[in-house]
Design a protein that fits this description.
A 5-stranded parallel beta sheet has the order 3-2-1-7-19, covered by helices on one side. A 5-stranded parallel beta sheet has the order 9-16-10-11-12, with helices on one face. A 5-stranded antiparallel beta sheet has the order 22-23-26-25-24, with helices on both faces. It is built from 9 helices and 26 strands. By secondary structure, it is an alpha/beta fold. The termini are far apart. This is Ferredoxin reductase. GO terms for molecular function: oxidoreductase activity, acting on NAD(P)H. Keywords: FAD, Flavoprotein, Oxidoreductase.
Length: about 400
């Protein structure tokens, strides 16, 4: 690979943030040496399509791939360490990459929920594929689709977790005719991200369309030949053909496994030339409280912003100002679209509105400034408010 260990810019992570960073660098005319480190099997791909398209059979993992620009060097390897002072990234095979600027875009890893922690070994009790499946990667989606078989309507599935991925997966399974048990520790899942009004409407939809067990904890999971038994605290027993674990994510920085604090330009304080973007980046609002975002649109926006901050450092590019979290998300739940822009930071004041036609809209404000908007059946209103968003 020649002197690949001395590039101008190293971007660690081939997901949405990393891809946006390298494409922005090239799109803005940067002609230095750029390396993209990719730590997963296969090609970089759009992770947001894992449950929205790959699981549903709308796209293959190959069709969801993110093409790496031809003038960007792709290095395959898992980053396990970082020396911020030297801007050096250490890979699992011992290679070390140093650069004038490093963008950490390593994303997040799935949280192991109590259902998984309390099972000593899920190695496939029937000698086949394990029937308790995490849903985070393209390979996870392919494995789950294979377990569902050609006719998912004949399956019974227990979904553990009712966050974005768990809710959307459970809703799709119910839509295609599967019998679905949805288990969530919170009585009102997604309230922190959607506000109580929209989250309550989502919970009601779950209860109308599937077997919802909200505010319940898992006591034990047993994988048996041909199926899975989930026992909830209180004695309820759920029998199913397979179980899906979707307990959310945690940031995954090389070496630390945690998040990376950034300033309002996505630079890492005290480490000149080091930046972070996407789900691994931890921001602070004006009250000093930490927050992060784990949505594809936000990762793209942060990757591009970090790349422009790199350009300012290396070649004197313009200062685009603070990063404003105005990127959005959307999901379809039982025939209704839930969407939002911005980020619902802790402590924001909600203002709920019921719209003509039955839609719901929540505006979240900090000190009078609009920092997020969320709605159910409120697409037009959300887009109209997006231009008024401010950095929290």
């Amino acid at each position: 690979m020649g002197d690949v260990d001395r590039p101008d810019v190293v971007v660690v992570g081939g997901g949405a943030a990393g891809h946006a960073a390298v494409t922005t660098l090239r799109g803005e005319g940067f002609d230095g040496r750029v390396v993209l480190v990719h730590g997963e099997e296969g090609e970089p791909y759009l992770r947001t399509l894992v449950d929205k398209a790959i699981l549903q059979g709308l796209l293959t993992a190959e069709q969801a791939a993110l093409p790496v620009p031809l003038d960007v060097e792709l290095v395959r390897g898992r980053a396990i360490g970082l020396d911020p002072a030297r801007r050096a990234v250490v890979l699992a095979d011992g290679r070390e990459l140093t650069a004038a600027a490093v963008v950490l875009a390593t994303g997040a890893v799935p949280r192991p929920g109590p259902a998984v922690d309390r099972v000593p070994a899920l190695a496939g009790a029937d000698g086949g594929e394990p029937r308790v499946v995490h849903l985070h990667t393209a390979r996870d989606a392919e494995r789950l689709r294979a377990l569902l078989g050609p006719d998912p309507a004949r399956r019974t599935v227990t979904v553990l977790g009712a966050g974005f991925v768990g809710s959307e997966t459970a809703a799709w399974l119910a839509e295609v005719g599967a019998t679905v048990h949805l288990v969530a520790r919170s009585r009102l899942p997604l309230a922190g991200a959607l506000g109580t009004a929209v989250a309550r409407a989502v919970a009601l939809r779950h209860e109308e369309h599937l077997d919802a067990h909200l505010g319940r904890r898992v006591e034990a999971v047993t994988e048996r030949p041909g199926g899975v038994t989930v026992r909830l605290v209180g004695g309820t027993v759920l029998e199913s053909d397979l179980a899906v674990v979707a307990h959310g994510t945690a940031p995954a920085a090389p070496g630390t496994g945690g998040g990376v604090d950034v300033d309002d330009r996505l630079a890492v304080p005290g480490a000149p030339g080091l930046f972070a973007a996407g789900a691994v980046a931890v921001h602070r609002d004006r009250r000093g409280r930490r927050f992060r975002t784990d949505h594809w649109d936000a990762a793209v926006a942060q990757g591009a912003h970090a790349a422009r901050a790199v350009l300012r450092r290396l070649v004197g590019g313009p200062d685009l100002g603070p990063y404003v979290p105005d990127a959005g998300f959307s999901l379809v739940l039982h025939g209704a679209q839930v969407a939002g822009f911005g980020v619902a930071v802790p402590g924001a004041t909600p203002e709920h509105r019921t719209l003509d036609g039955g839609g719901l809209l929540t505006e979240l404000r900090v000190g009078g400034d609009l920092v997020a908007v969320v709605g159910l059946g409120a697409t037009r209103e959300l887009h109209a408010l997006r231009r008024d968003l401010r950095r929290p």
